[in-house]
Amino acid sequence: MKTSIMTCLTILAATILASCNPKPYKAEEYKPEVKPESIIYLDVTQWTSVRSNDPDNVLKLWDVMHVISTVQGIVNRDAPKIYINYISESKENIDDYWLLKSTAPGKWLSDCEIITMYDIVQVAELFKDKIKGLVVYDGNVASTSNVASTIAGVEDLIAIRYDATPGSLYSRLIAHGFEPKVWLVNEDGTSMFHSKLEPYRWAIKNYLSQGKCSDEFAAYYIDQYWRKACGNATMNHHTLTNHDFFVSKKAFFFDLSPWSDEPATDDPGQAIGEDLLVLKQILLEIYNQNGGQKMLHIGGFPAWAYKYSDSKNIGGKHVATQTEWEFAMVISAYNAFHDADALSYGAICNSSFWQHYPLKEKYHQKMAWPTVDQLKAKGYVNADGKVNTSKKYFIAYVGDYDAASWLYQRTHNIWDNPDRGKVPLMWCISPILAVRAPMAMEYIWETATENDYFAAADNGAGYLNPGMLEEPRPISGLPSGVEAWARHNKFHYDRWDLSITGFIIDGNGKGMTEKGVRSYATFSPNGIVPQKPPFTNYAGLYANMPITRPDASMSDGIQQVINIIGLHPDFPFYWGRAVLQTPSWYVEVKEGVEKLRPDFAWLTGPEFFELLRMYLKEGHYNTIVSQ
To answer: Which of 356, 493, 560, 584 ranks highest by number of CB atoms within 10 Å?
Structure first.
């Protein structure tokens, strides 16, 4: 449904939800009755009009959104109670887009009562039985904001920056009876900590090492340094709206550089690599607490536009992609992956709410795996049963869906594109996104056409470097994490009927050996595409699992695909990757290339990997990998 923000709100309040009898906003004393079936709909869209050249309102925005996220995380931990309306993308109100689907007749929330409110202090008052007070942090020491989010989840406290100015959000909360319980600043407002890393070390000692935090979830989001570095950023880039889920899980929050060869750009006075030492301490502590038996789910992504890169005037010496790869390599050494909420679609709202969405035990692909006769009928297999090598077989990696935030924000104008279904597409979506955006995953699977096929995005059920799981392990020196990764993926691949991993980003990490390839064969038996495959040829076969290497980006369109299919004339299988392109774009590219190259064959995911398997079994390139 394509509507404006105001139309969405009108529909929400007056049409689809008319039977829910939404309550109107009233004055300061407004305190509605919250029944078990009630949902508080907190509209904070007024904050989207704040501009980065207005520092006073940027500060107010930060305070409001941080309070909201921590209140949500606490209240929504056990049941979906608070839903916020904040994010818009391409003039679509994204939060309403998803809520409207679940409040339609017969859907999950169709029998709810919706209470519309606009003030977070009023909302917090409704749930004083769940909120135990405040954790007060220091606006002059940026890292205390992340430490406050950690404590908020562990202690059920609202995270709020100290600001005794009359009328500030801090002053309002105090006036409404919310008492400070934990101080990360002295009670007179002077600093308790005096460096970036001091608060993290304190939190590690008093919370993480005490077993008070999750051993399964962590959160990597920019701290309040964003307030002075935001530049021309949109008001989603603070990613405070992402905190709620991780607060609900009692996750440890951090924002640290992964680099060992330079000081952190937000703390240039520290020793070289000191941020990294603290990061490794956090990862090792969590690893030890779960005994290496769980994969650590880290939400977030390096804030490369503001820190730890050579972008703009940041002062780092590494390009953004290298920072991404370095972070992935480091966390992989400790059995951790990230759910990569990267700019510029890094914000997601209401994951603490959606975590309660009732998924089915099993979902199924609508596209069937091809038979040899079907491949013969299309001219891909000759009468003698061998692959027709006169063709240029091409698969499009339809990405990047390795972040819940990207799926949340772009489904409305990519998946809902009217041309979807006109050409076969291999949608590469990480199944781990079902943890924070389960409603989006179900919606996509249930509305797929027979031309929509699903494979896993990089690098399976989460983004890590699988070679870094193998012994001997650089950085950490820990025992192998290969089996833990395989178990983790097996569950998610089985639920979503996945058998192909469309891309494996090895980045700065070492490539897989036979150990890692063997693990992928247990959950991705129909194919993998690693950057650093364990052979020198174009492709290989392991335990009947076809392996090929990625070729290049196809995001520039027709000519780039033409270039890709000219890269290796003697090997007829080609892979191109595009990011956040619409089905209409793929239709145009496919038709354009077909006009120029009659030998070009745009394949489905199953066709591509089945033909590749057949081709390798024919003995081409002597590509059987040892097993």
So the answer is: 493
